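Possible regression after last week's pipeline update?

I re-ran a chain I had predicted before the update to compare outputs. Posting the input and the new output here so someone can diff against the archived version. Not blocking, just want to make sure nothing changed silently.
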Amino acid sequence: MKNHQTGGKRKVVFYGRISTEHEEQTYALCNQMQWYSQEKFYKELMNILTTKKERALFTAKDQYYSALCLEETDRYLYGSDDEFLKFKEEVSSVIEPARQRNYNSMHERHLAIIDSAMSTIPSNVALDYDLHIVTNKDKAGICHIMVNEGNLSWEKEDE
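New output (post-update):
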């Protein structure tokens, strides 16, 4: 496939999927995320993505979907998303000081909040103390979920 902007060749990946009524597909997103998160695939993809913006966008989406997968796992294992919501509250309280500080740029604010989220040590969340499956990617993904819900902004928030 030709890249219309530069005239050079562009690498393209095609994806297809057939859905069935089998129970295994109920949690297909988690299965796909586990596969895509494998180190070799991730490194190869990062080599294809050429700009910092493309890499940052992919990383943000990866974090977001990782957190969604954690939420889905909570529903599957515990029958509700209560544990995930507790975890989300913990992340929210940990990032609060970073949200209140002033930054020189939206990018600087974004990085500070994500770093703060990744420092969260879940204290009362079964997903972590029972299963030990909470990762930094999930913690950062919580922030992206909060942005999508309108509970967090990468821009300076009104007081």
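Follow-up from reviewer: compared with the archived run. The mean pLDDT is 77. Marking as no regression found.
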